[in-house]
Amino acid sequence: MQFDDDAALDTSEVQDNRGGALGGIPGGGKTVGGGVAGLLVLVVSVLFGVDPGLFGSDGSTSPGTSAADLSADCRTGADANSKEECRIVAVVDSVQAFWKRTGTAAGKSYEQAPTFLFTGSVNTGCGNATSDVGPFYCSADDKVYLDLGFFDDLSSKFGAEGGPFAEAYVIAHEYGHHFQDLSGTISRGSGQGQGSGSVKLELQADCYAGVWAHHATTTPDPHSGKPLITELTQDDIDRGLDAAAAVGDDRIQQRYQGKVTPDTWTHGSASQRQKWFSTGYSTGSIARCDTFG
User: How many C-beta atoms surround the C-beta of residue 69 within 10 A?
Assistant: First the structure.
């Protein structure tokens, strides 16, 4: 995945609080995740049979260092090609530029939603969360939350190959949830099991991530009028598909509990997640992402 070296990055939609703590309003809203489901580590343990201790966090906020000044460090596409946090900014810019051009969802114009970078734990409009839960979207405050350490976990704990586009797939999935929120679909994501609303919601977000990827190299940046992403290779797409499979319910359950229990699924199987990402990517059509139909 390559970005236009000369493109200007808009850092206003990525809030960097790594090493700090954000105050939030507990309660309300629906939280939906990309890699691991749920807002509380306990929920992850119940749904996936994973011992929370395996993830190596006690839920405290890491002191870390002062947050990087993204506006100073991430100015151009060249920065995105060389620095991970700048790549996150560029992907967020690209994803939101695509959805903004899509027009409306359920009669509403697309509304920007920031990504919030944190370490350790964070208070959100949906309550408190730790890094253990993986990336997630909170509909109560319309933010995507991300600890960059998850991308290391994607490889070391979930067995994915990783890479820049694997990261982009995860971010695009979460923004798919934001589009679902604007569309009024997010309320349909409930329950557990292969045919549950939760699984259908997550698979649709995978499909939406694929739709963005289909258009990523042709979506013009609102500032320059040129695509921010200049190249996606087949290897990029393969790594995205690999990441989608790695966070399939069956893969996670087999890895951590030694058996697969489909009646507890909330995100879908590895093959389902790959199928729906591929559907979005091959067609580029939002209409083809009707997992509820």
Answer: 10
At 143 the three-state DSSP class reads: strand
pLDDT digits (tens, 9 = 90+) for 228-249: 999 999 999 999 999 999 999 9
Q: Show the beta-strand stretches assigned E in 41-124.
A: 104-105, 108-109, 115-117, 121-124
CA distance linking residue 214 with residue 223, whole number of Å:
21
How many CB atoms are located within 10 Å of the residue 57 CB? 18
**pLDDT level of residue 185 (50, 70, 90 thresholds):** very high
E strand segments, 143-193: 143-146
CB 59 within 8 A of CB 121: yes
Task: Determine if residue 205 is left, alpha or beta; phi over 0 gives left, psi from -120 to 50 gives alpha, anything else beta.
Answer: alpha
Query: Which pair of structure tokens corresponds to residue 293?
Result: 């139909």
Give the residue ranges of DSSP H helices in 132-163.
150-156
